[in-house]
Amino acid sequence: MEVIGHADSTNIARMLKAEAARQQFVIADLEGTASLMVASAILAADLVLIPTQGSAMDASQARRAISFIEDQAVAVGPRPYRVLFTRTKPGFATRDERVIRETLAAAGVPMMATDLAERAAYRSMFTFRQSLEELDPQAVNGLDKALENADALAGEVMDALRGVRKAA
């Protein structure tokens, strides 16, 4: 994996296109605020993941991102996207989270089936500056569950991308 920084609104689309020519997969992880850089990345993406937590404030921000994507589709064509619930409690959904999921589903918003659960191992990646695979299972609680969760999410993203490419 290679991390490339220094992207801004004047170069992100070119950077993503150049990397896509060199790499099988390119991931742009950007802030969740509306900006020209985020808009450019969305327009260059094969698949946009919209992370949200189970709160009304996060759902409102997700709705804004979805509205932007749908508005841009009028000019440049459809941009495939999925809402990804993050920092969820494994095996437990709050009432707010359930209501938000039901509301999104009723509106026909595509959602990932796999959540990115709240796990100590994900925080440890930043603490120790290591990938999940590099972390010490003796030092990090629940590393095995985090690896399973990450693998399941990666598999679902791959399936979504295959579907996008097949439809194109």
UniProtKB/TrEMBL annotation:
Gene3D superfamilies: P-loop containing nucleotide triphosphate hydrolases. This is ParA family protein.
